[in-house]
Design brief:
By secondary structure, this protein is mainly α. The protein has helices at about 5-10, 15-20, 35-55, 55-65, 75-85, 90, 95-110, 115-130, 130-135, 140-150, 160-165, 170-195.
């Protein structure tokens, strides 16, 4: 899953949220210097990614994509699913998305000195362009796809993926709804398990 889903699945817990957010910028097991709850967030993030990659509905979504994206298909589906989460946010949260997004930005900005260097570099762009809120709009998704495509030096061709989203919009949304129900249950259970061993 992409940023919004990981942050949402942190269950409104500040340290879990921080760990979940920085996990992609942490190499191997080099995170024992963090607060135990931040460590839990990192571990949760990795369990979520493993669960997502192996889920049959996510695999079905990947098969809907044009073959040109190759191994970047998983990244594209992560972004698409964040779009549907943002679009349908009131189904999943009583806190308005704009309020949730601003709260997250404030938490991360207040603790930015604790974040890995790559996360520190990413955060200002995330806040400036209000990524979390703008995932609900197709223009916002296009901007994200363009950015990732630039970071892959145009190899991913992800800037073209909005065509796929529009082509199979209803089907992708159905996939997301089914998958996210499973992911929420998995995440809650996994967080309970992690909190007892970390």
């Amino acid at each position: 899953m992409n940023f919004l889903a990981h942050l949402y699945l942190s269950n409104n817990h500040t340290n879990i949220l921080i760990g979940n957010f920085i996990a992609d910028h942490i190499q191997g097991n080099h995170f024992t210097h963090f607060h135990p709850e931040i460590q839990q967030g990192i571990v949760l993030h990795r369990h979520i990614d493993t669960f997502t990659d192996s889920h049959k509905t996510v695999r079905k979504s990947k098969r809907r994509l044009n073959a040109r994206y190759g191994h970047y298909k998983g990244v594209i589906i992560d972004i698409f699913y964040d779009h549907y989460l943002a679009k349908n946010w009131p189904v999943y949260s009583d806190v308005p998305l704009d309020v949730f997004a601003q709260n997250v930005y404030q938490i991360l900005d207040n603790r930015k000195e604790q974040l890995p260097k790559k996360t520190q570099e990413l955060l200002p762009f995330m806040i400036k362009h209000n990524w979390l809120y703008n995932y609900q709009f197709l223009d916002g998704i296009q901007q994200v796809l363009n950015g990732v495509n630039r970071r892959t030096q145009q190899k991913s061709q992800m800037h073209l993926a909005l065509e796929d989203l529009k082509l199979h919009y209803k089907e992708f949304e159905e996939d997301f709804t089914l998958f996210f129900e499973d992911l929420q249950l998995f995440s809650k259970q996994k967080l309970k398990e992690i909190s007892t061993i970390t």
